[in-house]
Write a structure and sequence with these properties.
By secondary structure, this protein is mostly helical. Helix content is 75%, strand content 0%. The chain contains 15 helices and no strands.
């Protein structure tokens, strides 16, 4: 049994100060990022881009970030979490506003990839830091808090973008450049409030140790789900196709972010009560049902309703996935475990984006086909996770 470190808050009624600070870093970063993100499909089309270009925006960016996450997670097991968290957020804060200077679809892809490179550096160390700081009994709540703050920023960002564009029509590039301000605030929060706990004195599992069978099973299910979970840019593209004006698209994204935030804050405690795996199965099934509805929806009201169910599914699955990864991680290897999880999820983003973009461009039924494939893959992943046998927590080293 590990001895609790002084920096770790064990009371179930309280989250560590560092975990709360990480929630604010997620809020500020997504405020900056999501003021830009929902405008990218129309921006890329205005630069002469295609559906495949839109798929590449997140597909390539997330694939690059995924490779970085594996190495960053493993490095954090040796070097500590905070330095990599600071570097990752810093790169994104500086590089993201360069979107205001690009002139081609390739430039958009390059800046987005650079932004996600920073995310790749910080993500696994941040999640491992949360695992270091809280007991298993409240990990769902801790991850739910961070995801809720993340999505609250994601909701506010598009609202800020919409109000800005209503006041300054056609000034998207200026908005992109101003995204540096919340990015700098993020760095200030990390510098002042985020700290590593004391290094554990228990013997760590060797870095060369193979992944366990339960870990491999989870990663296989995640890979199938992620192959269908193409960029949410296609949701925004769909509402544009159904007649939503460009200035109002951020309002749709705002609603999606609000639903994600509320659901994640409620789902965290649910994960702790029901256990991560059954909660994750429910979330993936809800994801499948929502995309199945989108495949059949021909009206704006129905499509938006299905998109809000997609948002609820994300709010359920994100804390459940992270809590399950943490539960399966042996001591001293949490960063590596989160790195593998992010690697698999991120690498699948490239074929997922290309597949969805290719299906989207296949004609009048392209959008319905793309959404139907997403629904089918999510359902398969949920079924495999449900019948895969009991998943036990990793033993302490």
């Amino acid at each position: 049994m590990n001895t609790p470190s002084p920096a770790t808050v064990r009371a179930q009624a309280e989250l560590p100060a560092t975990v709360r600070a990480l929630g604010w870093t997620s809020f500020l970063t997504d405020l900056s990022s999501e003021a830009i993100y929902p405008l990218l499909p129309a921006f890329v089309k205005g630069l002469g881009g295609t559906g495949v270009d839109i798929g590449l925006i997140d597909g390539l960016a997330n694939a690059v970030a995924a490779v970085v996450r594996l190495f960053a997670g493993a490095a954090s097991d040796r070097l500590g979490r905070r330095p990599l968290v600071l570097i990752g957020y810093g790169l994104s804060a500086i590089l993201r506003p360069l979107m205001g200077l690009v002139a081609t679809p390739l430039g958009v892809i390059a800046v987005r990839t650079a932004d996600r490179f920073g995310k790749g550096i910080r993500s696994a160390p941040r999640d491992a830091l949360v695992t270091d700081l809280v007991e298993p009994a409240i990990r769902g709540r801790a991850f739910g808090h961070i995801r809720a703050m993340d999505h609250a920023g994601a909701a506010l960002g598009p609202l800020v973008a919409m109000l800005f564009l209503l006041a300054f029509p056609g000034r998207e590039r200026t908005l992109f450049l101003l995204a540096i301000l919340p990015g700098l605030a993020t760095l200030a929060v990390i510098w002042k409030f985020v700290r590593d706990p004391p290094r554990p004195t228990v013997a760590a599992t060797p870095a060369s140790a193979p992944l366990s069978a339960p870990q491999l099973h989870l990663l296989g299910c995640v890979a199938i789900w992620a192959l269908g979970a193409a960029s949410e840019q296609f949701l925004l593209l769909r509402v544009a196709d159904l007649g939503v004006a460009a200035y109002a698209i951020p309002l749709i994204w705002f609603a999606i972010g609000v639903v994600k935030s509320i659901t994640a804050s409620r789902a965290g405690p649910l994960v702790d009560r029901l256990a991560p795996r059954p909660t994750l199965v429910v979330g993936w099934l809800a994801f499948a049902a929502a995309y199945g509805g989108l495949a059949l929806a021909n009206s704006l009201v129905t499509a938006v309703a299905c998109m809000l169910v997609v948002a609820m599914a994300y709010g359920i699955t994100e804390p459940a996935e992270r809590a399950l990864v943490a539960a399966l991680s042996p001591d001293g290897r949490q960063g590596t475990a989160f790195g593998w999880y992010a690697l698999v999820q991120g690498l699948m983003a490239l074929p997922a984006g290309l597949l969805a973009g290719w299906l989207w461009d296949r004609g009048a039924d392209g959008a319905a086909t793309a959404f139907a494939v997403t629904a089918a893959l999510a359902a398969v992943a949920a079924g495999l996770l449900a019948v895969g046998g009991p998943i036990r927590a990793a033993p302490s080293a």
